[in-house]
Specification:
Blueprint lengths: L2 H14 L12 H8 L3 H13 L3 E4 L3 E4 L15 H7 L4 E12 L2 H7 L6 E11 L2 E11 H4 L4 H5 L2 H7 L5 E12 L2 H6 L7 E11 L4 E9 L16
Antiparallel strand pairs: 1-2, 3-4, 4-5, 5-8, 6-7, 7-8
Helix pairs in contact: 1-3, 2-3
Amino acid sequence: MIKYTKIYEYIRNKVNSREFLPEEKIPSENEFVKLFNVSRNTVRKAIEKLSHEGILTPVHGKGVFVMKKIPIDFKLNDNQSFKEISLKKHLNFKTYVPVFEIITIDKDLNKRTNFEIGERVFHIVRIREIDSEKIILDENYFLYKYLEGLSEKVAYDSIYEFIETIKFLKIKGTHKIISVNKVTRQDIEYLDLKDFNNVVVVKNFSYLENGTFFEYTESHHRPDKFVFTSFAKREKK
């Protein structure tokens, strides 16, 4: 493990276990230098990473403090699968798969998904139910040549788990675009919309470790069940 990563994990675990309490100062740089037998720059690198994640905040002349976190019940902007988030939050969830097919990208789908015309993709529609309410509609397009062997049974469970544990591919990350749109016929058909006539649409462009664009997904969320969170650090010029 890289030295600064070891310090980063140590501090983060202490914060999560509340050994380092919110709004309290953590041990000094010198203490971490002695504890891990590293340079001050190594300690600072770990603290800087935790600061960018909104976990710590250095205060000039006073030390480094733990930031107070606002609790969030269900954060949907994580780069995790629906199954991973639901299990982590102990949610009562189900997935339905009304559409599972292999199609070829045409001109219209090329504009929508950015996949090349002629590429074969898995086209999957999945409905996410939480506490007996259908609140999320995922429309997935996965590049066939990387996910050959993907089945409808897997789609009911976790496609990302299949990608990582069966296909042994590493997912690098996802670029997300978030907007609020009018409901579609598909939303009306599949979701429990109550009186809402808009949905929050998250467009996901996902990449493998080698930079290959392999997934385009549109996730339609009922507005009252969607939470977007981010931490933006203010930098003075």
